[in-house]
Amino acid sequence: MSLKALFVMTLIALVVGLMLSQQYTVDKSIRISASAEEIAGLVSDFNQWPEWQPWQAVDPSIEFIIAEPSQGVGAHQFWQSRFGKGEMTITQLNKNAMMFNILFNQEHIAKGEIRFSNAADGVEVRCTLQGEVNTPIIGGYLALLSQYILNNSVKLALNNIKTYAQLATTEKAIATDDSQSGSSEN
């Protein structure tokens, strides 16, 4: 490849990169046969996250530090891995939703929401993330990469939440049945 062709390809890549949006959105949902309270307990307490979060499977080098408070508004966690570092803070919480902010590598900001809506067969859980990559020139490419990675990670996280919430609901139902049948025998 000639030097001129390499220059033209580089110039095209730079122009395309400048034209790409630096913003991304992830929006995933799942229906879960569990109570909204059970699900909210899993997501609003960072001490519960090791039960369902997928990031250690994706990146075994990741290490989390959970600050106090660990749950509710103001809860904060940090992480560091070979890909960088970040932090997340729960900013709002009510019976229908949890809102949070994420800062990736001191430069890339995302806002998120996990919403719980009653459905006929349980609860619909919807996770939405909106972020922006502020890295000059390659920010658009990084936004595309972030959206791809987060789409897959959020989908896996929601599936894991479904598994843990439904398992907890089933275990509670079995324990209730056992205690009721044990008390009726006395």
Note poorly predicted spans: none
Order of helices and strands: HEHHEEEEEEH
Helix content: 40-55%
Q: Cα distance, first to last residue?
A: 87 Å
Number of strands: 7
Folded structure, characterized:
The protein is an alpha+beta fold. The protein is built from four helices and seven strands. The chain has helices spanning 3-19, 36-43, 55-58, 139-185; strands at 23-32, 63-66, 76-81, 84-94, 97-104, 108-119, 122-132. The chain has a seven-stranded antiparallel sheet, with helices on one face. A hairpin with a 2-residue loop joins strand 3 (76-81) and strand 4. Helix 2 crosses helix 4. The radius of gyration is 21 Å and the shape is elongated. The mean pLDDT is 88.
Keywords:
about 35% strand; alpha+beta; about 190 residues; elongated
Summarize the structure.
The chain contains four helices and seven strands; from the N terminus they run H-E-H-H-E-E-E-E-E-E-H. It has 186 residues and is of the alpha+beta class.
